[in-house]
Amino acid sequence: MKFPFINIHTHKPCAEHALCISNLFTDDFYKGNKKISGFFSVGIHPWYIKDEKTLEKQLSLLKEIVSHSNCLAIGEAGLDKLTETDWDLQYKAFIEQIRISEKSGKPMIIHCVKAWDEILKLRKQSKTTFPWIIHGFNSSEQMARQLLDAGCFLSFGKMIMKPDSKAAKVLKYLKPDEFFLETDDEDITIGEIYNKTAELRNISIDELKKQLSGNFERLFKIFSTDNTL
Description:
By secondary structure, the chain is α/β, with parallel strands linked by helices. The protein is built from eight helices and eight strands; from the N terminus they run E-E-H-E-H-E-H-E-H-E-H-E-H-E-H-H. The two termini are 13 Å apart.
């Protein structure tokens, strides 16, 4: 049985022989400039929250879009302390998206920049029962364990190509059912990410593909073998 590459988060066209969750924004649907094909996530990114009025429109549209059968997750959503977006608006948008995740029964893909304490606090306070996928993880082993213990998955991208990065060091020692891989918006293939991950974890590409396909199936209840693509 063959297993595809799983790209859990990408802003670029999905590569052949890969199963992707493409990142879309609510405004893409509002402007009508995105065709829905393949699996996707949709959310309100903290970079693109302009004001209270615009946020209300985005939230209203998001509640409609999440019912689409190809929408697998909410996001990317989260908190970013380096963006110029008002912090209170970021916070409100994130909390509302947690509620939408709960109501729709779909996990979240999380964007976090220097806001780990706040993300963990909201994870615990919300008492959400649905997983969060922390995309582009590149923090400490201690933070990784706190997030995993709180019911999150970690997703790794281009940073693992740097052997001294925090991401590469963490990825070596995770359990097979604790992580995913992604390309985000980088000019790198999911195959390259898999190759490096297999090298770091000292396993074969086939075994890695089998493990991550299993994670995908368990999380989204969707079969990911070639026969069902």
